[in-house]
Amino acid sequence: SRVVITFGTFDVFHLGHLRILQRARELGTRLVVGVSTDALSYSKKGRLPIYSESERMEIISSVKYVDDVFSEESLDKKSEYIRVHNAQLLVMGDDWYGKFDEIKHLCEVVYLARTPSISTTAIIEKMKN
Ligand code: C2G
């Protein structure tokens, strides 16, 4: 069995999120997802997510490609999360290209192309107009 791990805020869930979870799952036999806490999301995005941590956890755990979810509290705890979940492959969208290469001593790292022209920020902006 091959455990794949990925991380994200996954706020206002959209096809870009779904496509990376689907592709990540296809690279292994099991997919575990670290869903960023509200605090971590705030520090990454400069704003609180629209959906709370528990709502985002519930949505991600309902996605058929996802086998398990946990709270991602810090960007610097990846080694711990990878060890705890016995992950052999870390998958991230290529907006993170090269950012997690220091993890390569622990597990493989693959960056997948982002789904074009969709983002939570754009969705929120569209709703405002
Ligand atoms: N994504 C994608 N295509 C999009 C939008 C997002 O493939 N159009 C991917 C991102 O590349 C990321 C995942 O979906 O791999 C989750 O996106 P975010 O919720 O924005 O995640 P991010 O804030 O980048 O958090 O420890 C890593 C961070 O927690 C990642």
Automatic annotation (TrEMBL):
Q: What is this protein called?
A: Adenylyltransferase/cytidyltransferase family protein
* UniProt-listed Pfam families: CTP_transf_like (PF01467)
Task: Tell me the domain of life.
Answer: Bacteria
Q: Which UniProt keywords apply?
A: Nucleotidyltransferase, Transferase
Q: Which InterPro entries match?
A: Archaeal_FAD_synthase, Cyt_trans-like, Rossmann-like_a/b/a_fold
**What NCBIfam families does the record point to?**
cyt_tran_rel (TIGR00125)
Question: Which ranges carry the Cytidyltransferase-like domain?
Answer: 5-125
The GO terms this record gives for MF are:
nucleotidyltransferase activity
**UniProt source species:** Zhongshania arctica
Gene3D superfamilies associated with the record: HUPs (3.40.50.620)
